[in-house]
């Protein structure tokens, strides 16, 4: 046993020696090669730090910042539009209609639901909650309004739907065709809904309903003014000939975008 142990020691000692020899060879090798190696290492680190920094700031900007900026809230009741549009008689207007005075009813009041929901009809836990917590107690559901504008903004549905003939989807997206209420996001600083300034942190907009900032209102107003429907669409045989009508003066234009027209949209 002891002899084999000694042998093992000897072997390891020899190995140490050869390792030292290798070290010596390496230090003896020309210094240029070593410098080059170090340089590469330095550059690698710089690139690495750059990537970490980039990924880090992207994560902060695109993911963490929006999470911090907006708090998420669930609607008190999950509402199924598709199911209801199928059961009511007049589609959207059964619940979202214009009153006699031309004002828009907005989100329906409890009174519009009780005819059907006096008692629980089905197995749906959301319906049970709705009937027990609101219908039975005669309490209005505190719905969160995705499109809610600041109090200083004046918006009339009649001007847009009746006169402007603008479709709900252009401004609201496909809420009327949804089976669940989506999450409501509230800006922690302003208290405004995220639907006003939009989902995209960089301010990009793919659909007309992605955002409803001042510029978005004005953008559509400008487009509508550019083509006064009744006049400009008349055919005229020779394009350079003077037309038998005048371009409307800005005072005649119903849809305002001018800087002096703040009080069209603000109160
Ligand atoms: C049975 C009643 C009912 C009918 C019918 C109905 N809705 Fe609604 N609607 C509601 C209720 C309740 C809410 C609030 C809950 C929510 O936002 O999910 C709402 C919310 C909305 C909103 C969100 C407004 C906002 O900014 O928060 C839009 C847009 C909307 N409805 C459009 C439609 C359209 C379009 C139709 C027809 C295709 C329709 N609704 C049919 C009851 C109804
Ligand atoms: C024309 C009748 C009718 C009216 C009006 C009506 N509902 Fe319903 N509702 C139904 C039917 C039918 C169901 C399906 C019940 C089942 O079988 O589960 C239902 C289901 C529901 C449910 C459970 C499914 C879901 O949407 O998540 C909720 C919550 C609800 N209704 C809320 C409302 C509210 C709020 C109003 C008023 C704005 C309303 N209902 C108006 C007929 C009606
Ligand atoms: C030109 C854009 C536009 C169109 C078109 C439009 N809306 Fe709106 N809607 C808005 C804005 C902006 C608000 C928020 C108004 C406010 O905060 O004063 C709103 C608010 C609402 C609300 C919530 C109101 C409340 O206070 O309860 C409902 C519900 C709604 N719209 C439904 C509809 C339906 C249904 C249609 C189609 C028939 C429609 N809207 C068409 C822009 C539009
Ligand atoms: C998709 C197009 C569109 C969008 C988006 C839109 N509007 Fe309009 N708006 C119109 C049209 C079209 C009219 C003109 C209706 C008419 O008088 O014939 C109008 C009219 C108005 C009027 C009445 C102007 C007047 O002189 O009587 C006000 C106020 C107004 N819009 C405010 C807003 C506000 C605030 C927003 C944004 C929250 C908005 N609009 C977004 C198309 C739009
Ligand atoms: C086409 C309609 C429209 C016109 C015209 C308009 N605004 Fe606005 N304005 C809005 C809407 C919608 C908002 C809310 C959304 C936002 O912050 O962009 C707003 C928001 C604002 C805010 C921020 C208010 C807040 O509570 O956050 C200020 C300040 C403002 N507008 C000033 C002006 C001034 C000054 C003018 C005239 C030069 C003007 N606006 C003309 C639609 C309009």
Question: How would you describe this structure to a colleague?
Answer:
The protein is mainly alpha-helical and 267 residues long. The protein has a domain at 17-70. The protein has eleven helices and two strands, in the order H-H-E-H-H-H-H-H-E-H-H-H-H. The protein has helices at 2-28, 31-69, 81-87, 111-117, 125-135, 157-163, 168-172, 194-197, 214-226, 229-232, 262-265, and strands at residues 70-73, 184-187. It has a two-stranded antiparallel sheet with strand order 1-2. The longest helix is centred in the N-terminal third of the chain and has 39 residues, at 31-69. It is globular, with a radius of gyration of 35 Å. Bound molecules: heme C (5 copies). Residues 149, 153-156, 159-160, 163-164, 166, 170-171, 212, 216-217, 220-221, 224, 254-256, 264-265 line the site of one heme C.
Secondary-structure topology with pairs:
Elements: H1 2-28, H2 31-69, E1 70-73, H3 81-87, H4 111-117, H5 125-135, H6 157-163, H7 168-172, E2 184-187, H8 194-197, H9 214-226, H10 229-232, H11 262-265
Antiparallel strand pairs: 1-2
One heme C is lined by residues 149, 153-156, 159-160, 163-164, 166, 170-171, 212, 216-217, 220-221, 224, 254-256, 264-265.
Q: Can you list the strand order of the major beta sheet?
A: 1-2
What integer is the average pLDDT? Answer: 79
Structural class: mainly alpha
Radius of gyration (Å): 35 Å
Give, in order, the helices and strands.
HHEHHHHHEHHHH
Distance between the termini: 101 Å
- Topology, number of strands: 2
What is the percent of helical residues?
40-55%
Which percent band covers the strand fraction?
under 5%
Spell out which ligands are present.
heme C
- Overall shape: it is globular
Largest beta-sheet characterization: 2 strands, antiparallel
Structure annotation, total helices:
11
List segments where confidence is low: pLDDT < 50 over at least 5 consecutive residues.
Answer: 1-29, 226-234, 245-253
Report the oligomer: single chain
């Amino acid at each position: 046993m002891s002899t084999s142990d000694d042998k093992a020691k000897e072997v390891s000692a020899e190995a140490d020696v050869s390792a030292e020899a290798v070290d010596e060879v390496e230090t003896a090798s020309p210094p240029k090669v070593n410098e080059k190696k170090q340089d590469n290492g330095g550059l690698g680190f710089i690139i690495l730090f750059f990537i970490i920094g980039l990924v880090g700031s992207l994560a902060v900007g695109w993911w963490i910042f929006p999470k911090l900026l907006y708090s998420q809230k669930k609607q008190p009741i999950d509402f199924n539009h598709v199911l209801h549009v199928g059961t009511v008689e007049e589609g959207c207007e059964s619940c979202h209609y214009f009153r006699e005075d031309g004002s828009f009813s907005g989100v329906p009041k409890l009174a519009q639901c009780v005819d059907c929901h006096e008692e629980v009809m089905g197995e749906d836990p959301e319906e049970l909650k709705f009937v027990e917590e609101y219908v039975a107690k005669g309490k209005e559901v505190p719905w969160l309004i995705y499109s809610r504008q600041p109090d200083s903004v004046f918006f009339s549905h009649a001007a847009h739907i009746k006169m402007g003939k603008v479709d709900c989807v252009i401004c609201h997206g496909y809420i009327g065709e949804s089976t669940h209420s989506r999450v409501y996001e509230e800006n922690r600083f302003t208290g405004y809904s995220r639907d006003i300034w939009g989902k995209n942190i960089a301010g990009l907009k793919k659909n007309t309903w992605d955002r409803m900032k001042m510029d978005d209102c004005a953008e559509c107003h400008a487009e509508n003014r550019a083509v006064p429907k009744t006049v400009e669409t008349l055919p005229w045989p020779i394009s350079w000939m003077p037309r038998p009508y005048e371009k409307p003066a800005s005072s005649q234009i119903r849809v305002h975008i001018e800087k002096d027209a703040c009080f069209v949209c603000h109160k």
